[in-house]
Write a structure and sequence with these properties.
Peptide Deformylase, alpha+beta, two-stranded antiparallel sheet, globular, binds zinc ion, five-stranded antiparallel sheet, 4 helices, 30% strand
Length: 203
């Protein structure tokens, strides 16, 4: 399901917890072409519309190492093929995920990070990030490695998260959660589908 907001930009459906694309490692980008710039434009618009502070390409079903971010005071940006260098010092702060809507939990992460990567033109970039921006970078790079923030929670919080997810109204539904837009009919919730083994694995 897509929503065309201008002739050139498309808001894409955000994949939800349970979708296998969220558990797969994304591929390096090798072609810095027009379709990559289109992907970045669509991801930026989809992130702002949601709204979210970051969006990784697998979250719209594209298995490429691309993410966008939007943090107040820093602005909007994107990174292709990101690599992170993390500080040893860490802090706990609250986190959520567009692919796990409605839930937030405390997550411990390194407090700062140096990010290296490229822009959509293929030019090298380097960003020193701390606090929220560093957290967003880590959350998004995790997505590119098929890791959800649930896997970063303490054992107790992960149990709590899984129980909240099972009760969430979107759980077991197909992809779409785009600012209240829903598409196709709900999947029959017979619990024998691929969601349950994943849930068990995380719990
Ligand atoms: Zn996320």
């Amino acid at each position: 399901m897509v929503l065309v907001v201008s002739p050139h930009v498309t808001i894409r459906a955000i994949r939800l917890f349970g979708d296998p694309v969220l558990r797969s490692k994304a591929d390096e980008v090798r072609e810095f072409d027009k379709s990559l710039r289109q992907l970045v434009d669509d991801m930026t618009e989809t992130m702002l519309e949601a709204p979210g502070q970051g969006l990784a390409a697998p979250q719209i079903g594209v298995p490429l190492r691309v993410f966008t971010y939007h943090v107040d005071e820093i602005g909007v940006g994107h990174v292709i093929n990101p690599v992170l260098e993390l500080s040893t010092e860490s802090e706990v702060d609250i986190e959520g995920c567009l692919s796990i809507p409605g839930l937030t939990f405390d997550v411990q992460r390194p407090i700062s990070a140096k990010l290296k990567g490229q822009n959509a033109e293929g030019e090298a970039l380097e960003i020193e990030a701390s606090e929220l921006l560093a957290r967003v970078f880590q959350h998004e790079v995790d997505h590119l490695d098929g890791v959800l923030y649930l896997q970063r929670l303490t054992k107790e919080l992960r149990k709590e998260a899984m129980s909240q997810i099972r009760q969430a109204e979107w759980f077991g539904m197909p992809d779409t959660f785009t600012a209240g837009i829903t598409s196709s009919e709900p999947k029959p919730k017979d619990s024998s589908d691929s969601v349950s083994p994943k849930a068990a694995e995380l719990a």
